[in-house]
């Protein structure tokens, strides 16, 4: 593929950063790891209400390639995560982040892939849904995957998985306090946070859709995991 | 002096019509007669970068170049292109980024308006920020057309995949090569008939094939190809007739 001068990448990333910062969306915050480098972002993800992750505050680093948006960024949790699709080093394994070539999941699951119209926002929404709907077909952490299945198949009677997640969520509270962040714990707060401070210029449909999608996600969280897991932009 | 560094090169006569990228894929024995055939019908070849996006890039450049001298078709295309944005947003592509790609696409399209020149188009198609965004948007148009007409295409894709999966794996990612189905889709999405000369292993001459988006409609007979591409295994370039 063409060697894109990183000028395109810088332009695309600046545009996205500005958009997210002026019109925050539900479930996460972003900032640059270092103000002089647009290619590395720090993101903080809020655990979705009514899930094991409720109240959690999870930090991750996103690294963008020089040919962004033609190739996807990588996402690595800094917060310790016990999850079927997160490697021990924190790296997130999710179909939307797979580069177009050498796709290990090819032909397995109907799931969102990377394309140049995907954004930080669509990635993070996918990651948020992945938290509660792990993909156990190609786990990055096999032990976590086995434990998750036990928990799920026993309908919550086997509590090992649940206990570990709750403990991890608890452990993130300190970090949230340190950052002076109040993590939303009700669906209403979670979504209200997404309302931009100045929404007079904003396309109302855009936010209406998001709101409805999110409600759908919450309701479906314990359903079949082979459903479209990203739940965004499909309405 | 021709170089292979650009996305779309300045046109120069290429008397050999030799494959610049993978000569090994075309047996030495068939090449001379096919080159001879091309030389008898075409005066020039414009090379495009061999990066998996060559079909889109060749299509985009060759088509806009024909629009430089066809104001009526430009007007029709401009409206089609303008309208396509809402269709794609309707299919679920993220609005924010889609608009960015569409805006850049339209900026390149508008370069056709007077005083548009081939030189200006060459420059635009060699500017990564414009050229690659343009390619992305053409890919989205193909994806959109396939998804909107999924019933007609579902039997023409490999493997047990839905049209949406096919699009996300074989159409939307940059650098994914184009096949017959991609060409059919783009020519139909934009209603542009084109011809492709296949310099492949079969026969002594190039096999030409017209992609006619009006096939089966009342306009079918007017489908004169507006430009011609040359296909050599794995790569598309632009041909200029004598």
TrEMBL record, chain A:
UBC core domain mapped to chain residues: 8-174
Pathway this chain belongs to: Protein modification; protein ubiquitination
Region (Disordered): 215-235
Keyword terms, alphabetized: ATP-binding, Nucleotide-binding, Phosphoprotein, Transferase, Ubl conjugation pathway
Active site: 93
One GO MF term: ATP binding
Keyword tRNA processing (UniProt): no
Homology family: Belongs to the ubiquitin-conjugating enzyme family.
Full protein name: Ubiquitin-conjugating enzyme E2 R2-like
Lineage, opening ranks: Eukaryota, Metazoa, Spiralia, Lophotrochozoa, Mollusca
Automatic annotation (TrEMBL), chain B:
Disordered: region residues: 1-37
OTU domain residues: 43-242
EC number(s) given by UniProt: 3.4.19.12
Positions of the catalytic residues: 51, 54 (nucleophile), 235
Comp. bias intervals (Polar residues): 1-15
Enzyme class: hydrolase
GO biological process: protein K48-linked deubiquitination; proteolysis
Keywords per UniProt: Hydrolase, Protease, Thiol protease, Ubl conjugation pathway
InterPro entries, sorted: OTU_dom (IPR003323), Otubain (IPR016615), Papain-like_cys_pep_sf (IPR038765), Peptidase_C65_otubain (IPR019400), Peptidase_C65_otubain_sub1 (IPR042468), Peptidase_C65_otubain_sub2 (IPR042467)
UniProt cross-references to PANTHER family, sorted A to Z: UBIQUITIN THIOESTERASE OTUBAIN-LIKE, UBIQUITIN THIOLESTERASE PROTEIN OTUB
Family: Belongs to the peptidase C65 family.
Protein known as: ubiquitinyl hydrolase 1
Lineage, opening ranks: Eukaryota, Metazoa, Spiralia, Lophotrochozoa, Mollusca
């Amino acid at each position: 593929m063409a060697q894109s001068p990183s000028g395109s990448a810088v332009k695309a990333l600046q545009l996205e950063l500005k958009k997210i910062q002026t019109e925050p969306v539900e479930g996460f915050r972003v900032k640059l790891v270092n103000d002089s480098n647009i290619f590395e972002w720090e993101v903080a993800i809020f655990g979705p209400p009514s899930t094991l992750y409720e109240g959690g505050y999870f930090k991750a680093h996103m690294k963008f390639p020089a040919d962004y948006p033609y190739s996807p960024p990588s996402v690595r949790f800094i917060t310790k995560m016990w999850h079927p699709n997160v490697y021990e080093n924190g790296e997130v394994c999710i179909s939307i982040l797979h580069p177009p070539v050498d796709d290990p999941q090819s032909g397995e699951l109907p799931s969102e892939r990377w394309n140049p119209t995907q954004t930080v926002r669509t990635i993070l929404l996918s990651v948020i849904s992945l938290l509660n709907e792990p993909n156990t077909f190609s786990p990055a952490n096999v032990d976590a995957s086995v434990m998750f299945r036990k928990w799920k198949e026993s309908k919550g009677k086997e509590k090992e998985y649940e206990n570990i997640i709750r403990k991890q969520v608890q452990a993130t509270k300190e970090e949230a306090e340190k950052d002076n962040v109040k993590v939303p714990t009700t669906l209403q707060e979670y979504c209200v946070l997404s309302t931009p401070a100045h929404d007079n210029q904003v396309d109302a449909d855009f936010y209406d859709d998001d709101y409805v999608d999110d409600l759908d996600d919450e309701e479906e969280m314990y359903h079949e995991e082979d459903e479209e897991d990203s739940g965004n932009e499909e309405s | 002096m021709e170089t292979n560094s650009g996305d779309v090169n300045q046109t120069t006569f290429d008397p050999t019509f030799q494959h610049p990228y993978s000569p090994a894929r075309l047996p030495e024995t068939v090449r001379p007669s096919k080159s001879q055939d091309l030389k008898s019908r075409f005066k020039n070849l414009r090379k495009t970068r061999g990066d998996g996006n060559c079909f889109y890039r060749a299509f985009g450049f060759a088509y806009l170049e024909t629009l430089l001298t066809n104001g009526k078709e430009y007007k029709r295309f401009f409206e089609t292109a303008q309208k396509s944005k809402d269709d794609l947003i309707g299919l679920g592509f993220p609005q924010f980024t889609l608009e960015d790609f569409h805006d850049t696409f339209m900026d390149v399209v508008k370069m056709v308006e007077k005083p548009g020149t081939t030189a200006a188009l060459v420059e635009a198609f060699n500017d990564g920020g414009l050229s690659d965004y343009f390619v992305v948007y053409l890919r989205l148009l193909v994806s959109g057309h396939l998804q909107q007409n999924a019933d007609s295409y579902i039997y023409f894709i490999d493997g047990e995949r839905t049209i949406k999966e096919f699009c996300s794996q074989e159409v939307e990612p940059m650098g994914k090569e184009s096949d017959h189905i991609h060409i059919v889709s783009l020519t139909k999405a934009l209603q542009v008939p084109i011809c492709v000369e296949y310099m492949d292993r079969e026969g002594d001459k190039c096999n030409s094939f017209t992609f006619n988006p009006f096939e089966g409609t009342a306009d079918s007979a007017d489908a004169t190809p507006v430009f011609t591409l040359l296909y050599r295994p794995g790569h598309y370039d632009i041909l200029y007739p004598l």
